[in-house]
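hydroxymethylglutaryl-CoA reductase (NADPH), Vibrio algarum. Tokens?
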Amino acid sequence: MPKLELHRRDYVSILGGDITAEELKHTLSSKFTPSTKNLPASPYLTKKNVERRWSQLDAPSLKAELLDPHTQSQSDAYHKNIENFIGTVKIPVGLAGPLRVNGLFAQDDFLIPLATTEAALVASYNRGAKLLTASGGVSAMLLNEGVTRTPGLAFYSLAEAGQFVAWAVTQYAQFKQIAQSTTSHGKLTDININIEGNHVYLVFEYLTGDASGQNMVTIATNAVFEYILAHTPVEPEYAFLDGNLSGDKKANSQTLRSVRGKKVTAEAHISADLIQKYLHTTPEKMMQFGQMTTVGGALSGAIGINAHYANALAALYIACGQDAACVAESAIGMTRMEVDKHGGLYASVTLPNLMIGTVGGGTNLPSQKACLDLMGLSGNGKSQALAEVCAALCLAGELSIVGAFCAGHFARAHHKLARK
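Tokens:
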């Protein structure tokens, strides 16, 4: 089969004549001259340090954009959230909704703030939200909670690894006491052991209250880790606080069957009439789209099957002070769309990795707290409801984008809303 002739720049070709070997060596070689762009040694947020950083930048017109008077007046709020502070970035925030959620914890019509620079995104989620509300809302259920940290230890042999495990399983009560002494909110709920040759991975699982909990579980597990190194009867060859079994901020398949953060499922039954009215297509066509894209996802090696959870979660996480890097794992999950026995559409989403909180981290920063307050989901006792809202929002987005593809509107919407 002939290949499409692509006119592209192959940068390796510059070695063939655009640049000599000596020039390439000079361009790519290490440079040891002192830098003239040196930040103050202290990373802390003080007025003097901020001014020193800007003096290195010598960009007064840019300073006005990043360090405006309002930001300066609120700068004390940021000192536990940022190092080498120079200002704030303003990201547009739009509202999607109302989105009716009938959950175990979230029971309201929500107007959801989404921070994004991607045109058509808020419009898409707004359309899906209105459709779901017109159909009676989203049924959402928090299924499980848990945040892990997974120390890894390497021993000389499998026999030594076995000796260590035999000791470690007798220490669970001690491990729990040590871990929980570091936090007033976290609880160590489970410890599992995974052996791979002479490697041992300890899986510590916590409940973290209304905090997302990454820092909490790191500090708690580190206290246990130091106890292990001081008291183990078999000294490891080497050991690390995390052996990368937790899935922290990485796409991984293990939590599709378990949990990291909060696991939520959400569903809706939508009549064919409403599908036609809001999405201009049919339940049958949406189910066919789901079947084809499930196979496509399998062919591409995707973990989970969904259209674009990452769009909803990135925009909501940024607006509401969550750790945006956790979208890498939070955006894994399963979407299903089927024609139900009444000829309508059954649609569901399951997200097992929602790393979110309503206290701690960036949730108390002025703008981020305001976004949580808009939904009534700031502070203690609200994280479970926020998780259910997240799942409902993802369902709204799945319906809207699948409907757009089925109706042939996807490119048209982006052309209309994103092109100047």
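The radius of gyration is 25 Å.
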